[in-house]
Design a protein that fits this description.
6-stranded antiparallel beta barrel; about 25% helix; 3 helices; Elongation Factor Tu (Ef-tu), domain 3; conserved putative lor/sdh protein from methanococcus maripaludis s2 fold
Amino acid sequence: MEKTLSPPDSNLPDAGAAPPHPASRSRVVPIVIVAGAAVVLGAVALLMHRAESQVNKVAMASAPKPVTTVRAIDATYRTMHTYVGTLRPWVEANVGPQFVSAYVDTVLVRPGAVVKRNEVLATLDCRNASASSLAVAAEARAIDARQKAIADESARVQSLLDGGFVSPNEAEQKEAQSASEQAQLSAQKAKLASTTLAVDDCILRAPFDGEVSVRSIDPGAFVRPGTSVVTLVDRNTVRTTFDVPESDFEAVAPKSQVSIAILAAGNRAITGAIARRAPAADPDTRTVHVEVDLDNADRSIPVNTTGVVSIRVGQPRPASAVPLTAVSISGPDASLFIVENGIAHKRRFPVLGEEGSMAYLDPVLKPGSRVVTEGRSLLSEGDGVAATDAPPPAALSSGEPPAGAPPRKEGAPPRKEGAP
């Protein structure tokens, strides 16, 4: 039987080949370990070199500190006193009944309505007062008729007295009766006038041309004398009222110019003159009442709102103006840092006052001096600085406060006015 021989498998080890020697394997392992350790040590050395190269070898205290500076500005300063006042209407009236108590029948106006003098604003249900008035009027007519009849009878009796037809006593009694009826008639007429006033009080009319500011009562409510149904104001002229301490009496003389910032009109500033000043101070608060009249024909100024009144007093004085962010004010002096030749020096100067975002210092601080505004909290006397000059705001160049920022009196908060 014929046998087929297959070729030998190439993947099978050769039976005649010798196995690898154990000594060659033992030499490869140390070489791999040494190579790995060398790589790790190299990486560590590289990282250490990189870290060492970024370490600052110079002390931070000796490095110049970055700051921002501005130049002190040559300016003039004039003290400004500021007070908080109230914009009051020229005339204000609470319209309501003065003599009768009744239910409200109609209220014909609402806030914002423009009314004329004697225009009807509201009516009351006064049927009882009307009936009483009619009764009094009828009684007065009856007394008048009786008085006329008695007067005629008395005249006839007097004519008979001369002929001796009546006694003098009878004539005197008739004359006295006529006088009594006349007195009763006068009393009844006075009562009729009183009831007529009560009837007229049931129709509430506008006492002057103006606008309705408040509607306090609606129809159906019961009102008594003194109850306000609507409030009427005349604001063609607005009175700015405020109180000042007695020490400022001379500063608020009549015709003195003032500036008023109206908060309800977006801080719109209006100039005016003091119209009147009280001749005496309030005995409790020791403040003097002052008023400024403002024309408001276009009715653009709402009343019973706030107005900030600013008054310039004294004479202008030379000053050096710097931002408030550059100074620390303590009492009458301000401390700040001045940069000279790259060195910061701490100095103190007398303060003349503040306005808006500016501090006005004694001109001992020379205009043009570089004053630190940012970074001064980290400075000490004699520190080196790397200064960057910043341009001052446009409002600083004229020494005036920024627009819309009302100035304040140094060392004193705004004072509120007392009761009008």
